[in-house]
């Protein structure tokens, strides 16, 4: 397993790192979401300050270069601003919770970005030509005195420096009382869902003043509330199917054809609790922080605090695969409860062929599990491995007992360095891993 | 090993907490289980009520912590320790369940002070003290915040106190520091005197299980942790006061609504934060003459008089 592991003997190499170098992390720079677009050419990040930064991959000549193109800043814009809810005397954070790309239909790119309360549709378009040679206007825009015009000419488009403009095309507001945790674009590319703690709404991308509530788990008496929605996603192929996960470790699959309000699930995915692992924290660690369909649509993956589970949509009573992310934390749950780390929401992602899954951990470690070979690998995102094309060294955490050389003991893990957000290029072996305020891009060495 | 009077190191204690649930049937492990549960219970309450975010708190986190508290309460219930509500001489093991019963209204938007009064020393049934959340949640859009916490809950929780042992006090202080990092450590210092003054009339409420000496360190933990609630409560209450002031600027009757519990919490907030030295002073002489329960009220009356003078004078 030395060097290789985690997907057909891929050797992961450092490619780039984006973000500030210093250890002093500005709160606004904390990365809160990472997402590749459908082609993988664009990589978007959202941060706590409400900004979206989009990186574009350079189109290099694949014959001559060893690695794929680098990602460079393509566009930066302020997506959300902080707001104040005067009724409750509370701030509404501008932090970007999720970004989802729309498939490209024309020259422009579209993405949805959301904070706790408002979803926005952004259009990102390029401008690399401008008209020159007006008759009545100077080049700087001032109007010419018509009496000075002696000849006529036809304005022509001339190349200019590339300008990337982002403009908000739709703002979907005032539909969520609670905090939005997920948005998911339907395979019909016309509708999308947004989910908060208690409700899921269905929107049409063109219509901002109306949304349909399709799931509502709010009890009549809020004191009876024991479960919240933690994530939701549309099926990649069936436009009538979506799933949502809960804080109790269940996933419900719903069919919108069944009824207008999908409070009754079509399928309920839940694994019975392992009695030997019962503790005070069983419920909390079973809370699902992310759910992702496989590209094929046949499987879905869920991330709870300690593990990643792969479910076959045809089997509800247990997952088909379970991977332990950091089982060594099981004996530390009380401390992790106390310092709130137990509530950290880790995300997970599939590679393009659904053969490998990836998720983050603490100490800037991230893990990959190869579903075919059943091998797993732990890697670290750190500036120490900064040399491009250096293969990343696998890391190992020593749970207890004698610590071997190069192993790290559980007690020396830095729980402030957590990797919550990771993304995998839809077609190639390129991954984006977000530490607190840096974005790391790793690539497969052998191309 | 627990129960033999030996001083346990914090690390061992930590391990006991971290481990899986031990079957409640065993002897010493039963104690460890109870300790574990007690600590988790207090941590949970501290999380719920010691938090004044500028933004809305996470509903998921609140729900999970609430479920934890409920589960512990269920266990306590099942262990058959439910007794009639608090009286100064009663055995304390139900104090947690009693206090917890007040916790569920964490989801309510605003808990009016009228819900509090019965808890400081009366024997009114609990049900009469709880404010139905349905009355409080105005409409669908009311997001349930964690603001107003009944001070009674905190005063009850600060009750489980044991006679301090000065030789282990500093280690307990260290434990407090370790378990309550950064923001809470100063608050613990600041509020502990409030709690000890505010709950003097209550007896040494202890859990009936387990040897005393083995729990000394933890009990001091328990002392300081719940104490944090008071300040939070009062701050939350103050926020409401301020809102009232803004809305009804010419009719400032809020200061004159004399309500023992309201006043108690209001007073507590006016106390200046104290240093660790004061913490030492207040915790050390715990066995000495307890402060009369009416003292907070007396102080409040003084405050009212003062305010009256100011107003009349101007």
TrEMBL record, chain A:
<dbReference type="GO" id="GO:0000159">
    <property type="term" value="C:protein phosphatase type 2A complex"/>
</dbReference>
<dbReference type="InterPro" id="IPR018067">
    <property type="entry name" value="PP2A_PR55_CS"/>
</dbReference>
<dbReference type="InterPro" id="IPR015943">
    <property type="entry name" value="WD40/YVTN_repeat-like_dom_sf"/>
</dbReference>
<keyword id="KW-0677">Repeat</keyword>
<dbReference type="InterPro" id="IPR000009">
    <property type="entry name" value="PP2A_PR55"/>
</dbReference>
<dbReference type="InterPro" id="IPR036322">
    <property type="entry name" value="WD40_repeat_dom_sf"/>
</dbReference>
<dbReference type="GO" id="GO:0019888">
    <property type="term" value="F:protein phosphatase regulator activity"/>
</dbReference>
<comment type="similarity">
    <text>Belongs to the phosphatase 2A regulatory subunit B family.</text>
</comment>
<protein>
    <recommendedName>
        <fullName>Serine/threonine-protein phosphatase 2A 55 kDa regulatory subunit B</fullName>
    </recommendedName>
</protein>
<keyword id="KW-0853">WD repeat</keyword>
<dbReference type="InterPro" id="IPR001680">
    <property type="entry name" value="WD40_rpt"/>
</dbReference>
TrEMBL record, chain B:
<dbReference type="InterPro" id="IPR009263">
    <property type="entry name" value="SERTA_dom"/>
</dbReference>
<dbReference type="GO" id="GO:0005829">
    <property type="term" value="C:cytosol"/>
</dbReference>
<dbReference type="Pfam" id="PF06031">
    <property type="entry name" value="SERTA"/>
</dbReference>
<dbReference type="GO" id="GO:0005654">
    <property type="term" value="C:nucleoplasm"/>
</dbReference>
<protein>
    <submittedName>
        <fullName>SERTA domain containing 2</fullName>
    </submittedName>
</protein>
<feature type="compositionally biased region" description="Basic and acidic residues">
    <location>
        <begin position="204"/>
        <end position="221"/>
    </location>
</feature>
<feature type="region of interest" description="Disordered">
    <location>
        <begin position="181"/>
        <end position="221"/>
    </location>
</feature>
<feature type="compositionally biased region" description="Low complexity">
    <location>
        <begin position="88"/>
        <end position="98"/>
    </location>
</feature>
<feature type="domain" description="SERTA">
    <location>
        <begin position="33"/>
        <end position="80"/>
    </location>
</feature>
<dbReference type="GO" id="GO:0003713">
    <property type="term" value="F:transcription coactivator activity"/>
</dbReference>
<feature type="region of interest" description="Disordered">
    <location>
        <begin position="78"/>
        <end position="112"/>
    </location>
</feature>
<dbReference type="InterPro" id="IPR052262">
    <property type="entry name" value="E2F-SERTA_domain_protein"/>
</dbReference>
<dbReference type="GO" id="GO:0030308">
    <property type="term" value="P:negative regulation of cell growth"/>
</dbReference>
